[in-house]
Amino acid sequence: MNATTNKSGYKWGCIIGSIPALPLLALFLLTLAMPLNGNGQERKFVVVIDPGHGGRDPGALGATSREKDVVLAVALKTGEYIRRYMDDIEVIFTREADVHVDLDRRAEIANSNRADLFISIHANGFQNRSVRGAETFILGPTRGEQNLELVMKENAVILLEEDYSTRYEGFDPKSPESYVIFTLMQNVYQKQSLEFAGLVQDQFRDRVNRSDRGVKQGGLLVLWMTTMPSVLIELGFISNPEEERFMNSEEGQVYLASAIFRAFRDYKNSIDKKSVVSVAPGETREEESEKDDIWFTVQIASTTSRVGLLSENFRGLDNLHEIVGEDRNRYTSGRFTSYQKAVAYRREVSKLFPDAFVTAVKNGRIIPLQEARERIIR
Ligand SMILES: [Zn+2]
To answer: What is the pLDDT of residue 109?
Structure first.
């Protein structure tokens, strides 16, 4: 391919001009957000992956295999793909071996690590061996008998735990009355959980050719106890001979894990795109008044709480901007219409914030650098 002979290649030629290609590539790789915590230290997006059951609790039983083993294999692969292909994500597992972990402990791992997303991975079992398909649950009231049966079965794992009735405040997983609480509660993370669940089902249906049972709501205790967007994925029915074979094959596990990985990547990208900019000083958010107002800036920090746009909070830097996002707020310094100037400024800034990187903003929202560079060079 000869980049200088087509129109877009010509445009690229203009901007690249004096900048060597390799640092540019490195910059592109750095454009994924590296959030900071309140103390100004790096805080990555945290995903907790929870392989269901384990140890003395085998979960649903197939003809030749057990739920606990299948879901562990798929969960570990999913985490491995995220670690391998996305460098701004911290992956935490609730278990990495065949051990028992109490249900409340699983939620506690996610809560204490201030996870941004909780993914519980399970497989179904049913008396009727012809029932098949993948489904993803978010927290909510359980509708339909078959769903209630499944939700009760998943919650029944607490019966294996000591002192469960005190720990789960008298919740009886086998009693339909216990489930009334889920019709009364409000799921504050419903929107985000629903978005991720939908992406998972899209992947299962379109890329893994699974029969799509859809996104459902259920009174699942483990989701109830977590304080972040959360889903419980049922990969398929271990009671169905074809699905049991698929879930136990290396190929099937790779497909299922890649599907969850791609859904996760799409979810993370969509969160990043929803960020909105506000400007110094203080609390007012910039309206999207200026059309196609594209500029470059240097991201220096990101937090889940808000930080005042004062130089002393950012190691003396000024010209600060706050980009308010759904999951966290990013902080940037500088405003440039020239990409090269932003790159030069980043070099300065990196003496104070070694992980600073150039980012692009269009009409108050972060956009991919490449898109900004193509739009601005006309
Ligand atoms: Zn299960």
So the answer is: 96
